[in-house]
Recover the amino acids of this structure.
């Protein structure tokens, strides 16, 4: 089996997918009051599941305290 290199179409699809998911993730993380760079962690396999749980169950700095 010969390994093939990625064509330009593969790279464009990868870039489009990163932009389509990255921009909304960046904005969601920013609205929660956390550093925007944390949105990059959503692209790492298995860490993205932990990030979803952390985002759903964690305390948001920008949310008012309900105590």
């Amino acid at each position: 089996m010969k390994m093939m290199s990625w064509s330009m179409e593969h790279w464009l699809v990868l870039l489009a997918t990163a932009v389509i998911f990255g921009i909304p993730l960046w904005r969601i993380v920013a609205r929660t009051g956390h550093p925007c760079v944390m949105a990059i962690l959503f692209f790492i396999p298995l860490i993205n599941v932990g990030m979803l749980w952390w985002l759903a169950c964690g305390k948001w700095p920008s949310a008012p305290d309900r105590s």
